[in-house]
Design goal:
Elements: H1 4-33, H2 37-63, H3 84-110, H4 114-143, H5 149-158
Helix pairs in contact: 1-2, 1-3, 2-5, 3-4
Protein backbone atom coordinates (compact mmCIF):
# COMPACT_ATOMS: atom_id res chain seq x y z
CA UNK A 1 0.00 0.00 0.00
CA UNK A 2 1.41 3.42 -0.92
CA UNK A 3 2.25 5.87 1.84
CA UNK A 4 -0.68 8.14 2.68
CA UNK A 5 1.39 11.28 2.05
CA UNK A 6 2.14 9.98 -1.45
CA UNK A 7 -1.52 9.07 -2.08
CA UNK A 8 -2.63 12.56 -1.05
CA UNK A 9 -0.03 14.21 -3.28
CA UNK A 10 -0.80 11.88 -6.20
CA UNK A 11 -4.49 12.71 -5.95
CA UNK A 12 -3.51 16.39 -6.19
CA UNK A 13 -1.40 15.57 -9.22
CA UNK A 14 -4.32 13.83 -10.89
CA UNK A 15 -6.13 17.17 -10.67
CA UNK A 16 -3.07 18.94 -12.07
CA UNK A 17 -2.87 16.53 -15.02
CA UNK A 18 -6.56 16.95 -15.85
CA UNK A 19 -6.16 20.74 -15.58
CA UNK A 20 -3.15 20.59 -17.92
CA UNK A 21 -5.24 18.57 -20.37
CA UNK A 22 -7.99 21.18 -20.29
CA UNK A 23 -5.46 23.98 -20.77
CA UNK A 24 -4.08 22.24 -23.83
CA UNK A 25 -7.59 21.85 -25.26
CA UNK A 26 -8.11 25.61 -24.78
CA UNK A 27 -4.81 26.32 -26.53
CA UNK A 28 -5.72 23.97 -29.38
CA UNK A 29 -9.09 25.67 -29.80
CA UNK A 30 -7.34 29.06 -29.94
CA UNK A 31 -5.05 27.84 -32.73
CA UNK A 32 -7.99 26.21 -34.53
CA UNK A 33 -9.84 29.53 -34.46
CA UNK A 34 -6.72 31.20 -35.89
CA UNK A 35 -6.70 28.63 -38.75
CA UNK A 36 -3.39 27.16 -37.63
CA UNK A 37 -4.29 23.46 -37.87
CA UNK A 38 -0.88 21.97 -37.14
CA UNK A 39 -0.45 23.98 -33.95
CA UNK A 40 -4.02 23.02 -33.01
CA UNK A 41 -3.33 19.33 -33.69
CA UNK A 42 -0.13 19.47 -31.65
CA UNK A 43 -2.01 20.79 -28.62
CA UNK A 44 -5.01 18.47 -29.07
CA UNK A 45 -2.48 15.64 -28.95
CA UNK A 46 -0.83 17.15 -25.86
CA UNK A 47 -4.26 17.33 -24.20
CA UNK A 48 -4.81 13.61 -24.76
CA UNK A 49 -1.34 12.86 -23.42
CA UNK A 50 -1.97 14.79 -20.20
CA UNK A 51 -5.32 13.04 -19.75
CA UNK A 52 -3.57 9.71 -20.22
CA UNK A 53 -1.03 10.66 -17.56
CA UNK A 54 -3.88 11.36 -15.14
CA UNK A 55 -5.42 8.00 -15.98
CA UNK A 56 -2.06 6.25 -15.39
CA UNK A 57 -2.05 7.74 -11.91
CA UNK A 58 -5.65 6.65 -11.36
CA UNK A 59 -4.73 3.11 -12.42
CA UNK A 60 -1.74 3.04 -10.08
CA UNK A 61 -3.95 3.92 -7.13
CA UNK A 62 -6.57 1.37 -8.19
CA UNK A 63 -3.87 -1.32 -8.52
CA UNK A 64 -2.62 -0.38 -5.04
CA UNK A 65 -6.10 -0.77 -3.57
CA UNK A 66 -6.57 2.94 -2.96
CA UNK A 67 -9.59 4.99 -4.04
CA UNK A 68 -8.36 7.71 -6.40
CA UNK A 69 -9.85 11.17 -6.27
CA UNK A 70 -11.32 12.47 -9.50
CA UNK A 71 -11.43 16.22 -8.96
CA UNK A 72 -13.02 19.08 -10.78
CA UNK A 73 -10.66 21.64 -12.24
CA UNK A 74 -10.74 25.39 -12.80
CA UNK A 75 -11.49 26.72 -16.26
CA UNK A 76 -8.35 27.16 -18.35
CA UNK A 77 -7.10 30.38 -19.88
CA UNK A 78 -8.76 30.66 -23.28
CA UNK A 79 -7.75 34.06 -24.67
CA UNK A 80 -4.30 34.91 -25.94
CA UNK A 81 -2.75 38.04 -27.40
CA UNK A 82 -0.67 36.38 -30.07
CA UNK A 83 0.58 32.98 -31.24
CA UNK A 84 3.50 33.05 -28.79
CA UNK A 85 1.48 33.43 -25.59
CA UNK A 86 -0.11 29.94 -25.60
CA UNK A 87 3.22 28.18 -26.06
CA UNK A 88 4.82 30.35 -23.39
CA UNK A 89 2.01 29.34 -21.03
CA UNK A 90 2.47 25.68 -22.02
CA UNK A 91 6.21 25.79 -21.30
CA UNK A 92 5.59 27.32 -17.88
CA UNK A 93 3.00 24.62 -17.23
CA UNK A 94 5.44 21.83 -18.20
CA UNK A 95 8.12 23.29 -15.93
CA UNK A 96 5.61 23.41 -13.05
CA UNK A 97 4.55 19.82 -13.71
CA UNK A 98 8.21 18.77 -13.66
CA UNK A 99 8.55 20.28 -10.20
CA UNK A 100 5.35 18.54 -9.07
CA UNK A 101 6.54 15.16 -10.37
CA UNK A 102 9.90 15.58 -8.64
CA UNK A 103 8.06 16.43 -5.43
CA UNK A 104 6.01 13.23 -5.73
CA UNK A 105 9.13 11.12 -6.18
CA UNK A 106 10.70 12.87 -3.19
CA UNK A 107 7.66 12.18 -0.99
CA UNK A 108 7.74 8.51 -1.98
CA UNK A 109 11.45 8.29 -1.15
CA UNK A 110 11.05 10.10 2.18
CA UNK A 111 8.21 7.74 3.12
CA UNK A 112 10.20 4.64 2.11
CA UNK A 113 7.53 3.92 -0.52
CA UNK A 114 9.82 2.37 -3.12
CA UNK A 115 7.06 1.10 -5.42
CA UNK A 116 5.63 4.61 -5.72
CA UNK A 117 9.10 6.07 -6.23
CA UNK A 118 9.67 3.60 -9.05
CA UNK A 119 6.26 4.46 -10.54
CA UNK A 120 7.27 8.13 -10.69
CA UNK A 121 10.55 7.44 -12.53
CA UNK A 122 8.78 7.15 -15.90
CA UNK A 123 7.09 10.51 -15.36
CA UNK A 124 10.41 12.14 -14.52
CA UNK A 125 11.87 10.96 -17.84
CA UNK A 126 8.71 12.05 -19.66
CA UNK A 127 8.92 15.56 -18.24
CA UNK A 128 12.47 16.05 -19.54
CA UNK A 129 11.13 15.39 -23.04
CA UNK A 130 8.04 17.57 -22.51
CA UNK A 131 10.02 20.61 -21.36
CA UNK A 132 12.52 20.21 -24.19
CA UNK A 133 9.79 19.86 -26.82
CA UNK A 134 7.85 22.88 -25.56
CA UNK A 135 11.02 24.96 -25.30
CA UNK A 136 11.81 24.18 -28.95
CA UNK A 137 8.27 25.05 -30.01
CA UNK A 138 8.45 28.36 -28.12
CA UNK A 139 11.63 29.23 -30.01
CA UNK A 140 9.91 28.46 -33.32
CA UNK A 141 6.69 30.40 -32.65
CA UNK A 142 8.67 33.35 -31.34
CA UNK A 143 10.66 33.45 -34.58
CA UNK A 144 7.42 33.00 -36.54
CA UNK A 145 5.31 35.54 -34.66
CA UNK A 146 4.86 37.75 -37.74
CA UNK A 147 4.48 34.80 -40.12
CA UNK A 148 2.62 32.00 -38.28
CA UNK A 149 2.68 29.74 -41.31
CA UNK A 150 6.41 29.24 -40.67
CA UNK A 151 5.51 27.55 -37.38
CA UNK A 152 2.97 25.42 -39.26
CA UNK A 153 5.64 24.45 -41.79
CA UNK A 154 8.04 23.55 -38.98
CA UNK A 155 5.49 21.22 -37.40
CA UNK A 156 4.75 19.63 -40.76
CA UNK A 157 8.43 19.18 -41.53
CA UNK A 158 9.41 17.85 -38.13
CA UNK A 159 6.31 15.67 -37.74
CA UNK A 160 5.90 17.12 -34.25
CA UNK A 161 2.29 15.98 -34.06
CA UNK A 162 2.93 12.52 -32.65
CA UNK A 163 0.36 9.88 -31.91
CA UNK A 164 -1.28 9.90 -28.50
CA UNK A 165 0.34 6.56 -27.68
CA UNK A 166 2.80 6.62 -24.82
CA UNK A 167 6.33 5.26 -25.35
CA UNK A 168 7.30 1.73 -24.30
CA UNK A 169 7.57 1.27 -20.55
CA UNK A 170 4.72 3.65 -19.80
CA UNK A 171 2.50 2.68 -16.87
CA UNK A 172 -0.96 1.38 -17.78
CA UNK A 173 -3.79 3.90 -17.88
CA UNK A 174 -7.20 3.29 -16.37
CA UNK A 175 -9.75 2.50 -19.06
CA UNK A 176 -6.99 1.85 -21.58
Amino acid sequence: MPAQAFVDALNEQIANEFAASQQYVAIAVYYDAETLPRLAAFFYSQALEERTHAMMMVQYLLDAGVDPGIPGVEAPQAGFGDIVAPVSLALAQEKRVSEEITRLASIAREEGDYASEQFMSWFIREQVEEVSSMNDLLTIVTRSKDDPLRAEEYLARESAVASAEEPPGAPPAAGG
